[in-house]
Amino acid sequence: MTTGVIIGAGWVAQNCYLPAFKKLGISLGAAADISIEAAKRLTEQSGGLAVTTIEEALLQRPDICVIATPNFLHARQSLEALIYSGLVLCEKPLAVSLGELALLKTAVLDDRLHISTPNRFRPDVIALMTAIKRGNIGDPLRVKITWRRKSGIPRPGSWYTNTALSGGGALIDIGSHAIDCGMMLLGFPQCRSAHVLKAGLSDPDCPPGADWMPSRAQDGGCFDVECSGRGNFGLDAGKLLEVDVSWNAICGEDKTIIEVEGTAGCACLKTLFGYAPVNSFAPILTIWGKEGKRESVFSFTRSPAVDFGGMLGALLGQKNDGAPGPATFNEGIEVARMIMNGYQTAEFPWLAGLA
Ligand SMILES: NC(=O)c1ccc[n+]([C@@H]2O[C@H](COP(=O)([O-])OP(=O)(O)OC[C@H]3O[C@@H](n4cnc5c(N)ncnc54)[C@H](O)[C@@H]3O)[C@@H](O)[C@H]2O)c1
Fold first, then answer.
1. Distance of alpha carbon 105 from alpha carbon 315, whole angstroms
2. Pocket lining for ligand 1, CB < 6 angstroms
3. d(CA 131, ligand 1 centre) in Å
4. Which segments of the chain have a pLDDT < 50?
5. How far is the CA of 8 from the centre of ligand 1 (A)?
6. Which residue owns the Cα nearest ligand 1 atom 25?
7. Ligand 1 site-directed mutation target among 6, 7, 11, 179, most atoms within 8 Å of CB
8. What was the pLDDT predicted at 265?
C-alpha cells in the first residue's frame, strides 16, 4: 500500500488532499503541522500520526510527501522532503523569490519533485488540451486566461496577504494555476519576457474575505499584496500568454475563461476553476476549427477528490486519460520564474506615494 505524509494540515490538506488520499487508498502515515490540533483533525479522520514537525513525519519514509504549508516554506521543505520521501508533491508556488528558485535549481538533482497542478486533471481542461493535441486549431500561438472571483480573498490578514510569507497576492495564488494551464496548452515554451500590472484596493484596511475562507482570530492583520494581477508573457517561437486574475473583481459571477488562438482556428472554454462554493454553471468548450464550430457542454461537479485524485494517481503511475501528469520540477520552476520576474516589472504607485 502507498503511504503518504502531509506537511501542513490546513484548508487544502483537509478539503483536497484528504479526499484524494481516500479515493486512491493512500494510507496517511503522518500529518505534520505546527498546530498539533490541526494535525489531529486530519489524522482523526484517516489514521496516521499527528506530529508538529516535518522531520517527525518524514521518519515514516513515505512513498509520497505532500507539502501544503504557506508558500514561504515550500522551497526549503521540498528539499528536506526529497531526502526521505520517494516522491514530493509541493503546493504551488514552488518558491517565493528568485533566490529560492536558484537554490532549488542547484540542489534538486532528479525528477522526484512535482508541483501541484490539479486543474490539468479537470475533464473540461483535458478536452481542450486533447483538441489542441489533435491539431483541431493548428499550432496554438496565443492563450489568454481570465479568472475572476467576485468575493474570493483568502483569509485577509493571514499569511495569504503578507508578501513576506506568500510572495504576492492574486497573481501568485490563483495566477500560478492560470499560468501553468496556459503554458501547458502552449507546449511549455520558454518565457522570454514578462510584464505584470498589479491592482490593490481603494481601502487599504483589511477587506472582508471569502465566505469560505474568512479571517481567523490568530491571523496577523498584514495586507500588502495585490488583489488583481495581469501578466503578459512573451514566449519562445513568438507565442504569447496573457493572464488576468482577480480575488475581488467587479463582475456578475465567478468565472474562468480560457481563450486559445491557433494557426488554424481558435477555442474558448468558459468554466470555473477552484472549489469555492459559489455559482455553478455547466462549463462550455467551443472550438472553431478545421471542421467548423463545435460546442461541448460538460456536466461534472467540481471536485477536489477528482482533480487532486487524478493528479496524485498520475504521479503514482496510474493511467490518466490524456492528462499530462502534474507539473514537473522544470515546469514549476518556469511558472514561478515568470511570476517573480513579472513582479519585478510591476508598479505599486501608492506605496511610493505617487498616487
Ligand atoms: N492547488 C490548489 O488548488 C490550492 C488550493 C488552496 C491552497 N493551495 C496552496 O496550499 C498551501 C496551503 O494553503 P492552505 O489554504 O491550506 O493554507 P492554511 O493556512 O489553511 O494551511 C497551512 C497550514 O500549514 C501549517 N504550517 C505553518 N508552518 C508550518 C510548518 N513549519 N510545518 C508544518 N506546518 C506548518 C499551518 O499551521 C496551517 O495549518 C498554499 O501554498 C496554497 O497556495 C493550493
1. 21
2. 7-13, 32-35, 38, 54, 68-71, 73, 91-92, 116, 118, 173
3. 34
4. none
5. 5
6. 8
7. 11
8. 98
Nearest atom (ligand 1) to Cα of 118: 1
Distance 10 CA to ligand 1 centre (A): 5
The per-residue pLDDT for 125 is 96
13 CA to centre of ligand 1 in angstroms: 7
- Output the residue whose Cα is nearest ligand 1's atom 27: 69
pLDDT in tens, 156-184: 999 999 999 999 999 999 999 999 999 99
Characterize 11-33 residue by residue with b for buried, 16 or more Cβ atoms within 10 angstroms of its Cβ, and e for exposed: ebbbebbbbbbebbebbbbbbbb
Q: Which residues pair with 271 in a beta bridge?
A: 256
For residue 350, the model assigns a pLDDT of 52
pLDDT of 279 reads 75
* Predicted local confidence at residue 5, as pLDDT: 98
Query: The cell 513579472 sits on which residue?
Result: 342
Identify the H or E element spanning 228: strand 228-235
Looking at the CA of residue 14, tell me the nearest atom of ligand 1.
Answer: 16
Place of cell 514578462: 194
Fill in the amino acid letter for 353. Answer: G
Q: Which CATH class is domain 120-305?
A: alpha beta
Ligand 1 centroid–CA 268 distance in Å is 32
Q: What is the pLDDT of residue 311?
A: 95
Helix (H) or strand (E) holding 24: helix 18-24
Report the alpha-carbon distance of residue 329 to residue 277 in Å, rounded.
Answer: 31
Q: State the residue for C-alpha cell 479568472.
A: 147
